[in-house]
Amino acid sequence: KDSGYFDRFVGLGGVTHFILLTAKVSITGLVAAAATFAAQVGSSLENHMNCQVGLILIVIIGSHTIVSGFFVAADTVLECFWEDLEKHDENIEKLVLRLTN
């Protein structure tokens, strides 16, 4: 086979990884902002919250772990899709026919 298929596969994989990384960082950042806001609102209502930074870090680490697990699964599905397209000469019609039967 032509090496152009492999180069295209690697290029698409790189773009896919970048998009997933950007989404992972965005989601973790949004959760961090929400946790910080919730801790500030909670501390203004009650001054008994001692470990605000610890709680925020636990929420950030937990959300990053959950998002990473989800995106590993999504990345695996996308990698299988790209490899399947490469194996079958990138013919979408064959892929659709095979999936429907």
Overview of this structure, please?
By secondary structure, the chain is an all-alpha fold. It has three helices and no strands. The protein has helices spanning 3-45, 52-87, 92-100. Helix 1 (3-45) runs antiparallel to helix 2 (52-87).
How does the SSE layout of this entry go?
Layout: H1 3-45, H2 52-87, H3 92-100
Helix pairs in contact: 1-2
Structural class: mainly alpha
Helix and strand succession? HHH
Outline the biggest β-sheet.
none
**What is the rounded distance between the termini?**
27 Å
Mean pLDDT over all positions: 75
Compute the number of strand runs.
0
Give Rg in angstroms: 21 Å
Query: How much helicity do the residues have?
Result: over 70%
The proportion of strand residues reads under 5%
Outline type = rod-shaped
Q: Notable features of this structure?
A:
3 helices; mainly alpha; 101 residues
What does this entry show, briefly?
This protein is mostly helical. The chain has three helices and no strands. It is rod-shaped and about 60 Å long.
